[in-house]
């Protein structure tokens, strides 16, 4: 691939098993010779307990312990990054496409990742959970900050389970709502994955129209006969037109049109729940969703459906496309 069309991917690694899942995942989703992969880590100079005592003149004995910890931590991170590079080499990625970069924390781990990401990357890949032992957290603190703060670069939030079985193609569930944002996400998927062993389903959810009126008694408004069907039919027509555009966009990027399917689910109560259910029952390893849908309200950096999908996805990887 020529330099103009090559992609650049930032893989944020913290030494955890969750973050290493990204390495195996990239081997399945990325065609070879199409991207530069930067294996990136931000490390802290000392553990938090040493920051609490650093200024205390009576416990200077901790200084040596802190320096030893720093050296060991840097060694361990370096080893982890090198293992990630060697794994990608075994998967067939060219050595020149793999770079290692680590740095001491400057502002904060998440903000340092965001600053690096803004220097020309096409994706940031991060584990849903990191080293935090509090396993009840749905999303780790660094991932949560990236979701909120990384608004200009697509974020790939790794699921907690990644299939290593390369005998079957990876399946992507690409959500469509007819918006320009959704069609840009489709083009992005094609440009990133064309040539990989991937099947894509373009998926749209049409909710049932709720005619409840606000208030404690939730009175129902009776619409004119056929109004509900007419509105749902109109939306389905819009979606089918969007599907046609999306298939053409994917084909134009070089993606094999024979590996594209479409599906509409209508009359459901929740879009996010239906997307998650489809991913689970259909064996999709990845959900692709726009950061925002139809809404163009600038102050809302993430749509409601997107936020719910991210919270519920758990085992499934989510691409959030800006």
TrEMBL record:
| Any Pfam family hit | Usp
Ranges for domain UspA? 6-148, 171-314
- In this entry, which stretches build a coiled coil? none
Q: Which residues cross the membrane?
A: 137-157
- Identify the keywords attached in UniProt to this record, alphabetized: Membrane, Transmembrane, Transmembrane helix
PANTHER family per UniProt: STRESS RESPONSE PROTEIN NHAX, UNIVERSAL STRESS PROTEIN UP12
- Entry similarity comment: Belongs to the universal stress protein A family.
Which protein, by its recorded name, is this? UspA domain-containing protein
The root-end lineage is: Bacteria, Pseudomonadati, Thermodesulfobacteriota, Desulfobacteria, Desulfobacterales
